[in-house]
Amino acid sequence: MSSGAGVTTAPPQAAGVAPRSAASQLVRDYVTLTKPTVQSLLLLTTVTTMYVAGTPSLRLILLTCLGGALSAGGAGAINHAVDRDIDRMMARTADRPVASGRVSPAAAIGFGVLLGCASFALLALTVNPLAAALSLSGLLGYVFVYTLWLKRSTPQNIVIGGAAGAVPPLVAWAAVTGGLDGMAFYLFAIVFFWTPPHFWALSLLMKDEYAKANIPMLPVVRGEAETRRQIVLYTVLLYAVTQLPFCAGGLGVAYLVPSMLLGAGFIYFSVKLLRSAERRWALRTYLFSLAYLALLFLSMAIAAHV
Predict the structure, then answer these.
(1) The 3-state secondary structure of the chain, one letter per residue
(2) 202-247 pLDDT, tens per residue?
(3) How far apart (Å, rounded) are the C-alpha atoms in residues 78 and 111?
(4) Which of 8, 62, 155, 203 has the highest count of CB atoms within 10 angstroms of its CB?
């Protein structure tokens, strides 16, 4: 009888499966830390704003987007570490890399700081210092103002903290022109006023989980009816703000028409949501808000070159 008769030997191709699988999971986890889904819309507003500001080269677009992605990814990674206790209590986020224990908080914070530093260096050296400083301000605002301060302390967290998410148009404008002017701040204001109705529509769907995690989102603190009223108010304010680029003479009728149609659509969804407590209208309003911002900024870029 062979001495190895009772020993099962793994075939050669199976020997490397576990390490490869672990490595793949690690890569996926670190990519997840950067919140790539959230970044896609930020990068779209960056690219379209650059075309509103001028006629940027492909190299400038790529460098600005890479710098912005590194900065937003760094902020996202630090957010994963800071909010790990909240994430563990919510079904939607319980399997996130830090919340689940697959990535340590220290590693996530170190990764986030590394990405933030890389972003600043890249933008400062290849684009311009103003774009680098603005991008860094967005990261610091998201981490220190929104995540560490406002998120757990006030139902106005997303209103004030939303300024961090409105920074990409400023970075884009600075990248192309080397400075900032009124039009850049109009685009900042559009994203700023868009953020509350967009996020509050989602928070209506997530109300119970936010309550369980003791996060004072508006539906938890003020109730769903008041949240729906605030969504209508902000969509009307947003509609007014979106007319500023036309009124100031920065963009013409090619922008005015789609901005009016998109604004009317957003108001329609918000009013339907006000009148109906059905979850489907919260979901539809949330999904429309994503399409709204993308199409609005695309219309700006097209109008700037017709």
Answers:
(1) CCCCCCCCCCCHHHHCHHHHHHHHHHHHHHHHHCCHHHHHHHHHHHHHHHHHHCCCCHHHHHHHHHHHHHHHHHHHHHHHHHCHHHHHHCCCCCCCCCCCCCCCHHHHHHHHHHHHHHHHHHHHHHCCHHHHHHHHHHHHHHHHHHHHHHCCCCCCHHHHHHHHHCCHHHHHHHHHHCCCCHHHHHHHHHHHHHHHHHHHHHHHHCHHHHHHCCCCCHHHHHCHHHHHHHHHHHHHHHHHHHCHHHHCCCCCHHHHHHHHHHHHHHHHHHHHHHHCCCHHHHHHHHHHHHHHHHHHHHHHHHHCCC
(2) 999 999 999 999 999 999 999 999 999 999 999 999 999 999 999 9
(3) 8
(4) 203
